[in-house]
Amino acid sequence: MAYTPTNPGILPTRCPDGTQMAPNRLADLDIDDLIEPITATLEAHPSVVLVISVAATLGAAWIDRASGSELSLAALYLGPVALIAWFFGRTPGRAWCLLVGAASLLAEMTTPGTATAPTVVAWNTAAVMMLSLVVVEVLTRLHRSLEIERDLARTDTLTGVANTRSFKELAEAELERARRYGRTFTLASLDLDHFKSVNDTLGHAAGDRLLHDVGQAVRRRLRKVDIVARVGGDEFVVLLPETDAAAAGVALDHVREALRTVTDGYGSEVTASFGAVTFVSPPNSVEEMLQLADVAMYQAKNAGRDRIESMTISREPKPPSID
Q1: Which residues are catalytic?
Q2: Number of folded domains in the chain?
Q3: Is residue 112 part of a domain?
């Protein structure tokens, strides 16, 4: 007797004999989970994209030639054009349009047993190139839009530095490098002192302007490999890869001096307190890193503000509690 589910809209989870069915793992996968690893691999190996595109172009020309002149196979040439445009950009994509045009022309001219009029050959070749150009323009604009959207999703719109989400992703990668290669790094937490007074006396527009200027000043005073992020209202974090305590102290002193120039126009009481933690041994998680940096930063505030308090972790730390 065939088994029929009582509700056709819901897949059964048990067999007719009552045993549990194996879960459908494929159904649980999102399409992005399948595409992203492939895209990441191709981005990391552009030569593979080039080889695939050359092979696809030659294959399209061979099929075009073998099919005869009665059937238009212009769409076959769009695949390699799309690959080049997506992974290499507009100019290489346009150049590939010329290549597929030449391949299409060669296929038309060498098709056995036919004598196609030159105007038809020219039209077919132009059609292939025009369609290819449209694909290049559409894909390069789409790619650029996605890049902008991705950047905006990881950027604090007020200050222009990384946001919390972006910082945690980058910090996780740096933490993994530290674990793998035994690298020392430093994380610093920066909090503006008496920031509330700026909003209360000068207005929120002035407070926003101060936050923007602080973010940009910190960014300018550090290396390109250093990570600057805004993780709270007036709290920033700075991750300094491959930086020991002495080098971090010098870098943060430069940042602190730069911030004094920024905050001077907002009142003498507006300063910055820094808490820096140098990890000789990597912590257990990014959250633990942030917690330890916050501890050091609160020590700076409790010690009188406008200063840098530092600590070094040379073993597996147990996060202290914040009173």
Answers
A1: 234
A2: 2
A3: yes
